[in-house]
Amino acid sequence: MPQTTQRCDYLLSQLDVLEAESIHIFREVAAEFERPVLLFSGGKDSIVMLRLAQKAFWPAPIPFPVMHVDTGHNFPEVIEFRDRMVADVGVRLVVASVQESIDSGRVVEQKGRRASRNRLQTTTLLDAIEEHQFDAAFGGARRDEEKARAKERVVSFRDEFGQWDPKNQRPELWNLFNTKIVQGEHVRVFPLSNWTELDIWDYVRREELALPPIYFAHTRRVFERDGLLLDAETGFANRGEDEPEFEATVRYRTVGDASCTGAVKSAAESLEEVMEEIAATRVTERGQTRADDRTSEAAMEDRKKEGYF
């Protein structure tokens, strides 16, 4: 009697495929490097990375610390959320302080209306990597965010000066990563490279992840500068007398230094409403909300070459 072969199809959802790829990256890097660290700001991308790291090593604890490069000009809601989440997960937090870099003379704080500490993070980050001898730093960059980020490999080489050279990128065939470095060099690793902003929010919904409240619509005092709605409550954005503040219903698509991170007008109070809003927009989150990346098309690439991203 002839035998029949039964075919079984195992279909994975888009999120399942992305999750599996990211978990593989976390495990590969943890196996190949001696001192990895996860860059954690308390924003949505780093929150998703933290959940992926938990899944990658469960039931064991995450085998590396998380690090926040703290400009000192953060949204209070995000710092409060960061500390609470790190305590809940039970992972060690390393805080690299830009203020300490300023006080020690390592960097000079900018002056003027558009002054920001965002660019000063480069020195603080590289000093912390050297101090703790981290050889791999997980970052939350995604290729859909900006042109310079789209040039990155998943495992992105940084030389002994912490600099990124797009012409010196190592080839990545399929999921084979070049992890060989010498002393003094390190790599940045981007497990979310192939994710989109909408994927991030869909994963937050599926995993029921908590987020800082500023990601959802709320009333805030803001002022307009160069087409952006900047925060007027913390005072970090150096509002001028010719820049009147007003109340608006806004939310943030990304969180960062309050001096240069803009809000967007929005009535989206739930995950579903935020996802509908993102699906309809044609402007990337950084292009819409980051003043320092809008100064020129090459702004982000310049900062990457200096060593921060």
TrEMBL record:
It holds the Pfam family PAPS_reduct. Keywords: ATP-binding, Nucleotide-binding, Nucleotidyltransferase, Transferase. Residues 283-309 have a biased composition (Basic and acidic residues). It is an enzyme of class 2 (transferase). Gene3D superfamilies: HUPs (3.40.50.620). GO terms for molecular function: ATP binding; sulfate adenylyltransferase (ATP) activity. Its EC number is 2.7.7.4. InterPro entries: PAPS_reduct_dom (IPR002500), Rossmann-like_a/b/a_fold (IPR014729), SO4_adenylTrfase_ssu (IPR011784), Sulfate_adenylyltrnsfr_sub2 (IPR050128). Residues 282-309 are annotated as: Disordered. One of its GO terms (biological process) is sulfate assimilation. Residues 36-262 form the Phosphoadenosine phosphosulphate reductase domain. Belongs to the PAPS reductase family. CysD subfamily. Heterodimer composed of CysD, the smaller subunit, and CysNC. This is Sulfate adenylyltransferase subunit 2. It comes from Actinomadura decatromicini. The gene is cysD.
